[in-house]
Amino acid sequence: MKNVARLITATSVAAALTLGLGAGSTVHAFDEHEATIDYRQGVMRAIGGNVGAIAAVVVDGAEFGDNLEMHTSQLVALSQDIPGLFPEGSDFPDTDAKEEIWDDWERFEELSNDTLEAAEALHAAVEAGDEGEYAIRFRNLGQSCQACHDDFRRE
Ligand code: HEC
């Protein structure tokens, strides 16, 4: 429990720092989608943080296996509605989202759903303690992120 508490504290501090920096560098405070973009980038970073933490355990053997379920359940929750983070027109001002998202919305939803399903599959394996499945399901998850970034995120 102590580790979890420390992890949560560390995450909040990091988030507060990021927010502080973000606010300081804001130029287009009046832009309609700015807050939305900040929010979705924050969610994506949270997703990325959980994936990085899981990789440290599953791939590199960090001894935090007891925390895996926390990370996978967060991933499932955060991936629930990725398309909802991308309202039409939110390709401006400061974003790496490509315009193609709104030209190819169905594909974007499909790829988002692949990530949700991959996160659910990994979560199910962790809940069942089915360690033999962790590596492959984690890899599938990573590939699902990559597939969307390849098409819809600027380098
Ligand atoms: C359906 C598409 C899609 C999926 C699936 C997806 N992403 Fe993203 N991701 C994006 C887009 C688009 C951006 C750029 C958002 C922006 O800059 O406004 C992004 C940005 C990011 C960022 C950078 C956030 C920042 O600080 O600007 C990280 C980290 C990230 N994604 C991690 C992940 C991980 C890890 C997964 C899989 C578990 C994932 N993403 C799944 C589309 C996706």
TrEMBL record:
Record has Heme as a keyword: yes
Regions that span the bilayer: none
One annotated GO molecular function: heme binding
Keyword Heme: yes
GO terms, biological process: electron transport chain
UniProt keyword list: Electron transport, Heme, Iron, Metal-binding, Signal, Transport
Protein name in the entry: Cytochrome C
SUPFAM superfamilies reported for this sequence: Cytochromes (SSF47175)
Top-level taxon: Bacteria
Signal peptide segment: 1-29
Binding site for heme c: C145, C148, H149
Alphabetized InterPro entries for the sequence: Cyt_c/b562 (IPR010980), Cyt_c_II (IPR002321), Cyt_c_prime (IPR012127)
Gene Ontology cellular component terms for the protein in this record: periplasmic space
Reported modifications of this chain: Binds 1 heme group per subunit.
